[in-house]
Amino acid sequence: MANEALYYGTGRRKNATARVRLVPGTGKVTVNGRDAQEYFGRQALVDAALAPFKVTDTEGHFDVIARINGGGISGQSGALRHGISRALLAAGDYRAELKKAGFLTRDPRMVERKKYGLKKARKRPQFSKR
To answer: How far apart are the first and last CA of the chain?
Structure first.
């Protein structure tokens, strides 16, 4: 156990950052010290985050230990997926499958800033003719 393989990956999405460790194991996922299902509260978010394992056929091969901060649960799920994908690159030659699924690309979409004179980024104040 002293010299067990350990793979690291950092994933980001929106304002969330996930620092991911992959340890050979049974497929247990721990996020911020809690079980992934309990942490995210929605199975869809957990499934989305664990998609890289399905694509590379490595389900149940690794335990995931992740530290996630920033953003909301959706962004955090995306960040975890990105981090797992990057860690899998170090674990084996899965680059082709991950790239084809689009899991290695950092999602560049961010929230647009609010502009002065407007209610939100693009929403204008109500117009009154008279």
So the answer is: 77
Contact 107, 71 (CB under 8 A): no
**Secondary structure of the chain: what % helix, strand, coil (to 5)?**
35, 20, 45
For the entire predicted model, the pTM comes to 0.90
> Would you state the pLDDT for residue 3?
57
Output the six-digit token pair for 40. Answer: 């995210």
Whether 1 has a pLDDT exceeding 60, the answer reads: no
Residue 14: which of 96, 77, 88 has the closest Cα?
77
Helices and strands counted in the chain (H then E): 5, 5
CA-CA distance, 126 to 124, in Å (whole number)?
Answer: 6
CA distances from 66 to 28, 49, 61, 120, 126 (A): 11, 11, 16, 34, 45
Closest by CA to 72, choosing from 103, 101, 39, is 39
Average pLDDT over all residues of the chain: 92
